[in-house]
Design brief:
Blueprint: H1 3-6, E1 9-10, E2 15-16, E3 20-22, H2 41-47, E4 53-60, H3 77-92, E5 97-102, E6 120-121, E7 131-134, E8 137-140, E9 145-146, H4 149-168, E10 173-178, H5 183-188, H6 203-221, E11 226-230, H7 244-255, E12 262-267, H8 273-278, E13 284-289, H9 297-305, E14 311-314, H10 316-320, H11 324-330, H12 356-362
Helix pairs in contact: 2-3, 4-6, 6-7
The structure holds flavin mononucleotide.
The site of flavin mononucleotide has 21 residues, from strand 4 and helix 10.
Length: 364
């Protein structure tokens, strides 16, 4: 049933034994003071290294990019050392792992940021209808401060510097997080980008920061080591894109010639982004379906079999099924998506999900 997902995928940039990627998932278990990944992170990712490609949780690229307690970074030498343990553990099992580079923009709170400073964003547009998780519980959002043009340029450099550190930490590549209403999508969407300078206004202006980041990261580490994740028409985190089709066609057309490792499209909105963007993207396309229920392997396998995607990413099912590709191959039943300790804590709910074989022996 899952043959399409179990076939290898080879390009100049990627050499994947199967088409089942692990989607990036924040688990909020890093040391909150140092941003060093959890001591259990190497085990967690190693357990899942049967994935065609592992993509880490979002990792902050500078101090203002951090979205909440327990998020890891790629800024300090200690953080690089912590990630090196993760990449070595994955490589020892024959796996491949990309680091997801993340700037949350307005999706954070002064309590999460050093010196309790105000979060930054393209424009001072506050999230009204949701609260934000902090070390002191869930609080109302504050109005973010508008980034200056100089700060935007230095943020572009921070993405590139974090990508270089990811290479030093032994990652096979990086994924730029352009999805889910974080800083990059805040620049793309009209309702969160009200700037009148060169970083706002027209589509050209709203795409300037995202494209500058992609170019800078690709130049820093080589385009074949860079993936880009987007979520066209995603209304999460109070994003409203007036014309996602035109916007993302333009973005993809501009990125296409660079020869990136992949484009990762999160399908959620009313616009059929995966099918539409597939026709404009000659490289590897990773698809992920974002909805209330965990991605359905049957539907995802169909996307690959029908040529809409080369690889599909699974999030929640990979948390509870560390050996997900092996289970799809053997037909072993899948464990349901997790319902405990998704965020924060130690090994509980993180590294204690058994493989199918371990579950069978445990039952004896
Ligand atoms: C606990 C959790 C944390 C997530 N963290 C991230 C993240 O750090 N970066 C990101 O791009 N997406 C993140 N996502 C979204 C997932 O990558 C994925 O798009 C979503 O879970 C839908 O796929 P699924 O149905 O296979 O779980 C997260 C999802 C979950 C459930």
């Amino acid at each position: 049933m899952y043959e399409a997902l179990l076939a290898p995928h080879h390009t100049e940039a990627l050499d994947l034994p199967n088409r089942v990627a692990m989607a990036p998932m924040t688990r909020a278990r890093a040391d909150d003071d140092t941003g060093v990944p959890s001591p259990h992170a190497a085990t967690y990712y190693r357990q899942r290294s049967g994935a065609g490609l592992l993509i880490t949780e979002g990792v902050y690229v500078n101090a203002l990019a951090k979205g909440g307690p327990g998020i890891p970074g790629l800024v300090t030498p200690e953080q690089v050392r912590g990630w090196r343990e993760v990449t070595q553990a994955v490589h020892a099992e024959g796996g491949r792992i990309f680091a997801q580079l993340w700037h949350v923009g307005r999706m954070t709170h002064p309590l999460t940021l050093p010196g309790a400073v105000t979060p930054v964003a393209p424009s001072p547009v506050r999230i009204e209808g949701a609260r934000i998780h902090t070390a002191e519980g869930s609080l109302a959002h504050v109005t973010p401060r508008e980034l200056t043009a100089g700060e935007i340029e230095s943020t572009v450099k921070d993405f590139a510097a974090a990508a270089v550190r990811a290479m030093a930490a032994g990652f096979d590549g990086v994924e730029i997080h352009g999805a889910n209403g974080y800083l990059i999508q805040q620049f793309i969407a009209e309702n969160t980008n009200r700037r009148t300078d060169r970083y706002g206004g027209s589509l050209e202006g709203r795409l300037r920061f995202p494209l500058d980041v992609v170019h800078a990261v690709a130049e820093a580490v080589g385009p074949e080591r860079v993936g880009l994740r987007v979520s066209p028409d995603n209304d999460e985190n109070e994003i409203a894109e007036a014309d996602a089709r035109t916007t993302y066609r333009e973005l993809v057309d501009r990125v296409e010639p660079l020869g990136l490792a992949y484009l990762h499209v999160l399908e959620r909105g009313r616009y059929g982004a995966v099918a539409d963007l597939r026709t404009r993207w000659s490289g590897t396309l990773i698809a992920n379906h974002n909805g209330p229920a965990a991605s359905d392997p049957v539907a995802q396998a169909r996307l690959v079999a029908e040529g809409h995607a080369d690889v599909v990413a699974f999030g929640r099912l990979f948390m509870s099924n560390p050996d997900l590709p092996a289970r799809l191959a053997s037909g072993e039943p899948l464990a349901p998506p997790p319902n405990r300790r998704v965020y924060g804590g130690g090994a509980d709910g993180y590294t204690d999900y058994p493989t199918a074989a371990q579950a069978k022996f445990a039952a004896v």
